Structure formats: structure tokens, C-alpha cells
């Protein structure tokens, strides 16, 4: 397995994996599959996002194929610059349990520790996602809040736990 920061040249493979994430676990993402496929020029948008200042997306590759992703975004406003946020962790289902999610998170946390001024990393997770919550807890994240009815998928409401790791 290789983990590396993704670049614009990875946009097509990255976007394909994001679409798979939206379809496979619609309850885990604020963006719906339908919203995603309705975007104009999604590959170009993805390429721009992969090169955006303060945004770092890491990919896990097995045999040269992208099988997992996670994004770290620094806060840019003056009063928030001590924080970063993690979004969009996804590992292909057939690689669950292989340690790829943990490896992606460790790489991301190692990277953020080298960014100037970052003291805290935040993330949100659907409260019923026990596997993800265990991963984050094992890495030192602690729950600091619960948002009831944070997402609504069809007629089902989903709560989200907000977690933080102080560096």
C-alpha cells in the first residue's frame, strides 16, 4: 500500500471514488450522489480542489489503484487558523478491515502536525457509525458535541458527533 497526497492529475480517479462513496454510504456524507453527478465539469472542479491552498487530500493506493481517500482543510480566517478539519474519509468496501482507514488518518495527522500553527483537528461522524467512531477514538479524538438531526436522508434523520484532537 502507498499513501500520498493527491494532485490535479489524480482528479478523475479521485472523483470516481468520491461517487462510489456517495452511493455506498449515502448516510455518511452531506453531499448526495444526485447532487454530485449534477455538477458541471466535476473532474475540473475536483482537480482544482486537489490543488486548493490549505486543502490536502491523501489517497491510499493498492497495486496502483486508488482505494481510499481523506481530506484535511486548514481554517483560513484569522481567529480560526489554529484549527483544521478532516472530511470525506472513505475506503472501498472490499478493503474494510485492512487498516487502510487508520493508515490514511495517521498520514493525515502526521502531515497536520507539520503545518505551522495548527493546534486542533475537528471532524464529524454519523453517530451510528461505530466503526469510524472507534477509529477516531483510537487515534485520540474526543467527542465534544452531538448535533441531533444533522442530516436527513429520505425521511430518516441522522445525528452527528463532533470530535476533536488537540495536537
TrEMBL record:
InterPro entries documented for this protein: Acyl_CoA_acyltransferase, GNAT_dom, MshD_Acetyltransferase
Domain of life per record: Bacteria
PANTHER family, A to Z: L-AMINO ACID N-ACETYLTRANSFERASE
CDD domains: NAT_SF
N-acetyltransferase domain segment(s): 1-167
PROSITE patterns found in the cross-reference section: GNAT
Pfam families hit by this protein: Acetyltransf_1 (PF00583)
Full protein name: Ribosomal protein S18 acetylase RimI-like enzyme
Amino acid at each position: 500500500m502507498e499513501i500520498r497526497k493527491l494532485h490535479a492529475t489524480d482528479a478523475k480517479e479521485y472523483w470516481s471514488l468520491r461517487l462510489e462513496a456517495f452511493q455506498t454510504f449515502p448516510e455518511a456524507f452531506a453531499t448526495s450522489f444526485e447532487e454530485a453527478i449534477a455538477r458541471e465539469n466535476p473532474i475540473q472542479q475536483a482537480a482544482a480542489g486537489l490543488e486548493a491552498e490549505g486543502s490536502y487530500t491523501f489517497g491510499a493506493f493498492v497495486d496502483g489503484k486508488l482505494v481510499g481517500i481523506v481530506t484535511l482543510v486548514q481554517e483560513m480566517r484569522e481567529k480560526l487558523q489554529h484549527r483544521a478539519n478532516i472530511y470525506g474519509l472513505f475506503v472501498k468496501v472490499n478493503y474494510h478491515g485492512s487498516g487502510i482507514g487508520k493508515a490514511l488518518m495517521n498520514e493525515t495527522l502526521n502531515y497536520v502536525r507539520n503545518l505551522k500553527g495548527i493546534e486542533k483537528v475537528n471532524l464529524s461522524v454519523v453517530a451510528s457509525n461505530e466503526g469510524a467512531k472507534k477509529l477516531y477514538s483510537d487515534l485520540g479524538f474526543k467527542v465534544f458535541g452531538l448535533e441531533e438531526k444533522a442530516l436527513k436522508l429520505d425521511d430518516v434523520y441522522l445525528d452527528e458527533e463532533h470530535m476533536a484532537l488537540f495536537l
